[in-house]
Amino acid sequence: MQKITLTSSGNEYEHTETAEGHFIDGEAFPVKIEKVSKDKYLMTTDNKVYRLQLAEANHEKGTAVLYIDNKKADVSIQDKISLLLEELGMSDMATSKVSEIKAPMPGLILDILCEVGQEVEEGDKLFVLEAMKMENIIKSGGSGKIKSIEVAKGDSTEKNQILLHFE
Length: 167
Prior knowledge:
The chain is mainly β. Helix content is about 5%, strand content about 55%.
């Protein structure tokens, strides 16, 4: 099962695809979609043909921008796992806020790639930590603004030692 929320011209529609077929806002919706090229499709329903073009897609966030006959539509997609998490009341766990970054292993801080007050995104490089003669890049586990950095270049660290705090 997959749930897609489509917002177009201020109207919001919910499309659900199950083994029984396609549904728009809970109503059966007979539809046929054919791929024409890398990002272009033809959608046929009720003997009408619509041209679809995928303008952009962000798989991590589950969002996309789609043009339907040249009219922009913002799309939000939830897969089976995110629907199950939502049903169990655990959907906010995937977006939980990170409050600190800890050293994953003992080592030596070779370089600090961030500064206090800096806004960082998930995956941004923060530190270079040498452990067992190997350089390890410590990346941000979430987005936020750096409140404090608890280590300095050349410091030795222990496993799980706090390296920085987010606001």
